[in-house]
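Continuing the batch. This is chain 6 of the set; chains 1 through 5 are on the previous pages. Same settings as before, nothing changed between runs. Recording input and output for traceability.
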Amino acid sequence: MSKIKVINIMPHPPAYREHENQPRPRFHWDTPNGSWVGIWGGDWADQVGEHLLRADGGFTYEV
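Output for chain 6:
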């Protein structure tokens, strides 16, 4: 039996300003305008997926 794939599309970018004084995540990129983007895996959407996968093994989850 195949698993149901849940794709969570965030309607906004991550709150980078909340992370200004912390080390950048392992995966990050500088943008042409001098700002940067990164992948944490700790946003609320990631945490919802983590709980879903723990509760039921019949899903895959992607943000």
